[in-house]
């Protein structure tokens, strides 16, 4: 039975309808000076779950009589909690503006207009506060958050038991929807049914294999254009269709958001929502679409249109009244954004200057390309001007509310019908070299990826485009020399689609349209899915990127397991598939990783693709070697991982010498871990906590002679032991270029997310989370870490430069000692990270930068800002650590360490685990760029 008799179900549907397009972008409030308390966290989780519910709740489904009561009771319980949580300030403002027509919500009595929608009349007596909220939303044009975030909130999560009950109810309803969606509900009574299913699509695919190749929007669009042609007002109407995951990958028959051109002025647009709605339609109510647009414009409201095989019906009077907000939108075309360089690759300069907020990342560009490719699959065989109109940058728009952040851009595609009398040729015969639709779409993909216009006139006839098609094929071939990325494979899929078509269509019972959509999906859409979410190649399609939201939900969650694919256009490298068996002997190991601390070792181990010694030790060690080794694989390299007994150069030298005796084939050692950083190395860049440093050379800054007037350094490793091998120097030289550094940083960020989301370490992974930019504090070099406010301690009273600091203060945090924030050093890059966090873009905020330079190595822990600056300036250092010089003396090495403190007296351990994770991530990213050496045969 359908749930339409359920008061709880209808209430949630009403709330969902009222909140459509009324919610502001979801961001959590960021507490810069302290961690958010429990109520704030609960409110954020409650809002996220409630938004999820409004997104996933279907229009209707069949439910057995046995399960109907439980479903209705769950929904009514949630409505009861929401009714109690309605913001009183909203109701009071409504009463103040309409005090003559309403009574107190607590009385449960309201005097309503006779024309009030039926849903409000039904819910009013049982949920008076929600009814008042609906009335408030009907007269307010603003956008809101639910329980957290800036501005006015619709609900207030109570403290104590009431809040716990509300949290439990929203969680229970969310779990019900999720179980129902994936078919795991214990009761088999729940079955999804699409309203008027036969009108728009073929038979519903199975739950295990939903068919994303089905037509989704084209039936509705085709019906709308047929209505325009039938009524023939003399104008060529256009549609600007919202490109949304809701209709591309969501439930069938999802209504489409769009703008319709008006008449007689085609430059005036009417906001509309068209599709299937749960309403009763009378054929006698059918009206001209042009008249419906004019009527909605006159009322200043959004147009709702029901579409089926009988045509289009204006149902605006049957739907909740929603004011049109067209005058509050800002629109930018893709062409304009290309001119503004918004699609150019993000550079370190952009990051430092705060320009990343206006630019599209590689992932965002790929997600946009994926959404447009699904439009190609949906509309390819429709009578639309795709090549000459829709696939031009000037016809793709990004619309956002006026004053909203650039991250709220929502893409729209412009659609225009072909001239009347157009005769469609044989569909499959049109697909060949130079096909204008496919060639123009391939050009569009390259424009999005490269961030610039491609001047190329495409002719309506395929034969006239052969030379341009050949030029584009040649360009893609050259671009692929640097890597065969899935993005370029999608471009190739457009150019060579004809080669993937079946040789004889007679061999299949599928229609030409179905055959073509399948090929477009396999050759174009699927490659972009793998580009956006590589993990989708390992999962069933229902778990793939199709569930990811569009618009700048593009930065939503952490990518799960991204070992196997590079998430950069044209750079796909399948690393984890390179090796399938373990090495035969110790001689075959080429790379060693040395860690000084267990926390460093743990972080590296999380990024090992395979372990060779899980069952037992296959390789042993040489006589006299005291080391204990862990063996495995990272990408294409067999790795030997070793943990030092103690920190320092001596321990590192002894361990690396023994390692060389047991593993003679090792050609490179990576010393991975944490270090102290120089906040302002040479140049104008700022080094922050969590950033990674790579050693161009290692300097023993504490080895030398102490004279009465100065300390003279005795030895520089760079000079005494010679430079690093040429292959290492060449690799580091690449990382000093903008391109090489950008690639390394992006891969490091991906591997960092993998550590943070490692499913096998759920109880331990929290320690690898980003501590937050507010915890990154750099004090002036001469500002000492000591008691500043304690009257009992002598060190708090003295202001002398060389005052003795009490032992207690060395183990306390700055907040406990009263270290004054007015002595903090202002840094632009840190402020950019704070801004990213405030916008909810934590993944971007935590992404480390990578520096290549000279690293100081000594047996002394530097804990003085003044000494740090003096030594760093003298030797041009970017960081301090304790093991690099010991290893360098034995085997060619690269120090890969992340900054966990600023080598001053204020250092603490807050950043150590996160820094260990970023160093391990950079190590894996570096190995993916390190060229493997051919093995020399041994007699």
In short:
By secondary structure, the protein is an alpha/beta fold.
Which stretches of 5+ consecutive residues score pLDDT under 50? Answer: 30-35, 100-119, 182-210, 536-579, 715-721
Measured between the Cα atoms of the first and last residue, the distance is 78 Å
| Residues in β-strands, percent | 5-15%
Write down the CATH class of the largest domain.
Alpha Beta
Helix percent reads 25-40%
Sheet of most strands: 8 strands, mixed
| Main β-sheet, spatial strand arrangement | 7-6-5-4-3-10-9-8
Structural class: alpha/beta
> What is the domain tally?
4
CATH superfamily of the largest domain: Nucleoside phosphorylase domain
Q: What is the radius of gyration computed over CA atoms, rounded to a whole number of angstroms?
A: 32 Å
Tell me, what's the shape?
globular
Could you describe the 3D structure shown?
Residues 95-107 have a biased composition (Polar residues). GO terms for molecular function: catalytic activity. Residues 209-534 form the DUF7580 domain. The protein has 939 residues and is α/β, with parallel strands linked by helices. The protein folds into 4 domains: 3-193, no CATH class; 218-324, no CATH class; 329-555, no CATH class; 586-766 and 849-929, Nucleoside phosphorylase domain (Rossmann fold, 3-Layer(aba) Sandwich). It is 37% helix and 12% strand. It is built from 32 helices and 21 strands. It has an 8-stranded mixed β-sheet with strand order 7-6-5-4-3-10-9-8. It has a 5-stranded mixed β-barrel with strand order 15-20-19-16-21, surrounded by 5 helices. Helix 11 (289-299) links the parallel strand 5 (269-275) and strand 6. It is globular. It starts with 6 loop residues before the first helix and ends in a 10-residue tail after the last helix. The relative contact order is 0.08. Mean pLDDT is 76; it is low at 30-35, 100-119, 182-210, 536-579 and 715-721.
């Amino acid at each position: 039975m359908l749930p339409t008799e359920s008061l709880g179900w209808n209430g949630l549907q009403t709330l969902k309808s009222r909140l459509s397009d009324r919610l502001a972008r979801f961001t959590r409030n960021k507490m810069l000076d302290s961690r958010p308390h429990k109520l704030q966290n609960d409110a954020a989780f409650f809002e996220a779950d409630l938004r999820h519910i409004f997104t996933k709740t279907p229009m209707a489904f069949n439910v057995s009589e046995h399960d109907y009561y439980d479903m209705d009771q769950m929904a009514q319980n949630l409505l009861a909690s929401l009714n109690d949580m309605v913001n009183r300030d909203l109701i009071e403002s409504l009463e103040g503006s309409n005090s003559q027509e309403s009574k107190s919500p607590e009385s449960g009595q309201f005097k309503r207009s006779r024309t009030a929608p039926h849903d409000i009349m039904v819910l009013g007596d049982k949920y008076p506060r929600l009814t008042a909220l609906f009335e408030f939303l009907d007269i307010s044009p603003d956008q809101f958050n639910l329980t957290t975030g800036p501005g006015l909130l619709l609900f207030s999560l109570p403290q104590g038991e009431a809040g716990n009950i509300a949290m439990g109810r929203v969680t229970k309803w969310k779990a019900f929807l999720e179980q129902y969606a994936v078919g795991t509900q214990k009761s088999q009574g729940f079955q999804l049914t699409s309203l008027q299913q036969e009108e728009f699509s073929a038979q519903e695919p199975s739950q295990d294999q939903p068919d994303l190749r089905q037509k989704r929007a084209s039936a509705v669009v085709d019906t709308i254009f047929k209505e325009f042609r039938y009524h023939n007002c003399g104008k060529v109407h256009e549609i600007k269709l919202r490109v949304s995951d809701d209709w591309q990958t969501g439930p069938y028959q999802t209504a489409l958001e769009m703008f319709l051109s008006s008449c007689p002025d085609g430059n005036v647009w009417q906001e509309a929502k068209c599709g299937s709605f749960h309403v009763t339609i009378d054929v006698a109510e059918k009206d001209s679409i042009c008249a419906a647009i004019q009527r909605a414009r006159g009322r200043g409201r959004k147009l709702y249109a029901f579409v089926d095989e009988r045509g289009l019906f204006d149902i605006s009077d049957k739907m909740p009244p929603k004011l049109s907000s067209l005058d509050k939108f800002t629109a930018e075309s893709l062409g304009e954004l290309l001119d503004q360089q918004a699609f150019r690759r993000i550079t370190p300069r952009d990051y430092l200057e705060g320009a990343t907020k206006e630019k599209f990342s590689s992932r965002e560009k790929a997600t946009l390309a994926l959404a447009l490719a699904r439009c190609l699959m949906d509309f390819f065989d429709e009578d639309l001007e795709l090549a000459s109109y829709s696939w031009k940058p000037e016809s793709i728009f990004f619309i956002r509310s006026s004053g909203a952040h650039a991250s709220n851009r929502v893409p729209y595609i412009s659609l225009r019908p072909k001239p009347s009398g157009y005769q469609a040729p044989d569909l499959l015969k049109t697909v060949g070299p130079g096909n204008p639709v496919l060639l123009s779409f391939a050009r569009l993909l390259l424009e999005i990826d490269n961030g610039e216009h491609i001047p190329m006139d495409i002719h309506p006839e395929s034969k006239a485009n052969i030379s341009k098609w050949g030029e584009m094929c040649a360009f893609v071939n050259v671009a692929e020399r640097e890597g065969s990325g899935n993005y370029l494979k999608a471009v190739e899929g457009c150019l060579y689609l004809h080669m993937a078509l079946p040789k004889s269509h007679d061999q299949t019972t599928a229609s030409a349209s179905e055959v073509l959509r399948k090929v477009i999906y396999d050759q174009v859409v699927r490659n972009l899915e793998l580009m956006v979410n590589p993990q989708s190649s390992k999962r069933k399609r229902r778990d793939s990127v199709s569930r990811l939201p569009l618009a700048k939900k593009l930065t939503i969650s952490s990518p799960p397991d991204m070992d196997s694919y590079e998430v950069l256009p044209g750079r796909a490298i399948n690393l984890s598939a390179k090796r399938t068996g373990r090495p035969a002997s110790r001689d075959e190991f080429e790379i060693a990783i040395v860690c000084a601390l267990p926390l460093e070792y743990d972080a590296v181990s999380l990024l090992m693709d395979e372990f060779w010694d899980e069952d037992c030790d296959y390789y042993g060690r040489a006589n006299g070697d005291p080391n204990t080794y862990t063996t495995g694989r990272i990408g294409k390299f067999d790795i030997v991982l070793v943990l030092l007994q103690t920190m320092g150069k001596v321990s590192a030298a002894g361990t690396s010498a023994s390692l060389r005796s047991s593993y003679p084939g090792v050609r490179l050692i990576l010393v991975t871990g944490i270090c102290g950083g120089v906040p302002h190395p040479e140049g104008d860049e700022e080094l922050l906590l969590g950033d990674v440093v790579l050693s161009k050379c290692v300097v023993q800054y504490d080895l030398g002679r102490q004279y009465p007037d100065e300390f003279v350094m005795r030895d520089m490793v760079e000079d005494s032991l010679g430079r690093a091998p040429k292959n290492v120097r060449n690799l580091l030289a690449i990382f000093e270029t903008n391109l090489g550094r950008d690639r390394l940083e992006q891969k490091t960020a991906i591997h960092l997310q993998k550590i943070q989301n490692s499913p096998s370490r759920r109880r331990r992974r929290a320690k690898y989370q980003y501590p937050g930019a507010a915890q990154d504090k750099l004090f002036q070099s001469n500002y000492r870490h000591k008691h500043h406010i304690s009257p009992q301690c002598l060190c708090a009273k003295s202001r002398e430069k060389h005052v003795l600091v009490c032992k207690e203060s060395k183990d306390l945090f700055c907040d406990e000692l009263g270290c004054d924030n007015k002595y903090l050093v202002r840094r632009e890059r840190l402020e950019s990270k704070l801004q990213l966090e405030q916008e909810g873009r934590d993944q971007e905020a935590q992404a480390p930068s990578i520096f290549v330079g000279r690293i100081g190595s000594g047996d002394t822990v530097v804990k003085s800002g003044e000494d740090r600056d003096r030594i760093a300036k003298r030797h041009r250092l970017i960081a301090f650590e304790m093991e690099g010089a010991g290893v360098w003396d034995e085997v060619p090495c690269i120090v890969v360490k992340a900054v966990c403190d600023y080598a001053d007296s204020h250092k603490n351990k807050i950043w150590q685990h996160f820094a260990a994770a970023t160093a391990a991530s950079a190590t894996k990213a570096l190995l993916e760029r390190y060229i493997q050496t051919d093995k020399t045969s041994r007699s």
